[in-house]
Amino acid sequence: MKPVFSGSLGPEMLSGPRPADSERHDDVMLELTEQIAALDRIYTERGRWSRVYATLSPRGHLHRDRHCRTLRPTTILAWLVGLADVSSEEVIALAGWRACGACFPTADMERRRSLPSGVDAFADYMDTHGRR
């Protein structure tokens, strides 16, 4: 039986020659990974304040953690530093239905699904980067 691949990581993406600029991209990814690790060390040393991340998709949600069980490995996240150390209740009040139910659980999920959202991280990202 042949393995089933979904998304963009099919067998054709995992074999064959690498693009000419892939080593430069590897260097950039390594540098960014090192920068994230350095910032994570500061975060740990200073007592781990609350963080909020947004998925960058048109129906994106806000998450408390980069490792939420509802995220896929290919999910692109934006770190919302303006919401650092904000309580879960404040995130829900701001994000409404866009607050992840796994990261920000409440007793009344049905009511929360009807709450309007004051956050559209995807639109903000696209506007900021001139992609609309």
TrEMBL record:
Region Disordered: start-end pairs: 1-23
Highest taxon of the lineage: Bacteria
Descriptive protein name: DUF222 domain-containing protein
Natural source organism: Brachybacterium halotolerans
